[in-house]
TrEMBL record:
The keyword Transport does not apply. PROSITE patterns: GATASE_TYPE_2 (PS51278). Its EC number is 2.4.2.14. This is amidophosphoribosyltransferase. Its cofactor is [4Fe-4S] cluster.
Amino acid sequence: MAATVNLSSTPSNPISKLPSFSLNSPQKTSFSLFPNSSSFPCKPFSHSLKSQFITSSKNPISDLFPPNKSGPEGDIVSSFSDDDDKPREECGVVGIFGDPEASRLCYLALHALQHRGQEGAGIVAVNNNVLQTVTGVGLVSEVFNESKLDQLPGEMAIGHVRYSTAGSSMLKNVQPFVAGYRFGSVGVAHNGNLVNYRALRAMLEDNGSIFNTSSDTEVVLHLIAISKARPFLLRIVDACEKLEGAYSMVFVTGDKLVAVRDPYGFRPLVMGRRSNGAVVFASETCALDLIEATYEREVYPGEVLVVDKKDGVQSLCLMPHPEPKQCIFEHIYFALPNSLVFGRSVYESRRVFGEILATEAPVDCDVVIAVPDSGVVAALGYAAKAGVPFQQGLIRSHYVGRTFIEPSQKIRDFGVKLKLSPVRGVLEGKRVVVVDDSIVRGTTSSKIVRLIKEAGAKEIHMRIASPPIIGSCYYGVDTPSAEELISNRMSVEEIRKFIGCDSLAFLPFDSLKKMLSTDSPKFCYACFSGKYPVMPREAKVKGVGDSMDDGLNAPLASIDGHWFKGPPNFDLEKEIDPLYQQSKI
């Protein structure tokens, strides 16, 4: 059934049922519209989907390019420096419709999402059916000022913060992207990663498409432009049917704002409303809070939401979705603690993770400390459950820039010392439990342990508020290759010896799933199990300019179409299969 919702009112009565739409593709599709409700209704009447694009599996990148190998352009430096050894969320998105200060609200919302990307930011605003854009490299506060926001009038805007890229290709990859085609202009901001990007790009280039960036998001614009479907909404549907992987996207045209989420719901996307009726979409609810928008609900996996002045908010089912596979790392690390993600409080999740660690991996200790900032809430949960005081044993500097000058006489662990300072009065002579959210390569953890020892700690017990990470993410998170992940190469005891602590325990995987209860099957655990809901078809590198941010050293000549080549007859699924065996899940 179809329904419209006025921007300033509750859902209206259902209107007549839409006919089935025939897209210019082999799929047979019919769509259903449904009112905004708290249920999970995205079930079309019928839909048969077969992939049109097939590509051979590619080798995991680290198998192809040994860590010490240099290319003709010299060494490519890993973004996973020893001083910042965490997975990185690729980006955050915002969309606003119906507010006279849309671009300024978008700017503030991007501030709230700054933790999701610090390398670039952009806003596209619509004024008199014209799309105007400002993008730049750096933090939101560095890209925008009063004069730039004055260039973005209008009641509709989308915005994007980006992590990733380096070198000359950086600025052109900053989103939102805007493109013109014969029926007008469209802007898009994308959070996620397409696992069939290379195949789609090759198909489009064979048919004459010209690409300006190395971003997988540009593929979506080309697919919209070549679609024969009508109206514009069905062009988006037609394009998204060809995509595989993770995407939470917001689109803007001269008169419409559109939000789309992939059928698995890998990346978060929420909907809210301001008191004046303006509709807001954002990656996290913390963005809604800052601009005083009330959270209404998530954009459902496989759903397309369309907002315009004529019909208000319309909801359409993109395609039948399997069971959702939402990213568990949003609750472990990426999202802010004050956000609701996938309908759950991030703060409460992390607090319970700490309680589970205290119950299942207890140890005699005098004080509990956190690796700030992401380990704080889990440490509070651990301390409360263990009945041991929580104190600030490590102080984080929030004023360290992205570049700094090291003295000529080398200082050991210089990067970590710039960011974290131990408090000797808290640590000296104490048995210390240190709670962190995850261990990726182990390099930062070993330096933190050394800092705490130098401050006089008697014992150091590491407690990690996630299971061991054994697999790389292909759905929008920048992680090292599996070969670089320490838990994929070492046992827990070997890791303990490597980082130099007295004991080490991870959050048990079974306990994590038990804590999630009936929601457990709805989460993606590929980084812990090696079981991928959507099988990666291609090696994960976004482009020459992005290679620095993928933990790789590779000859630039090895890159074809901005993706690394795999050897002939290589089967990625067989390569990933040993992870299944190792995880025993």
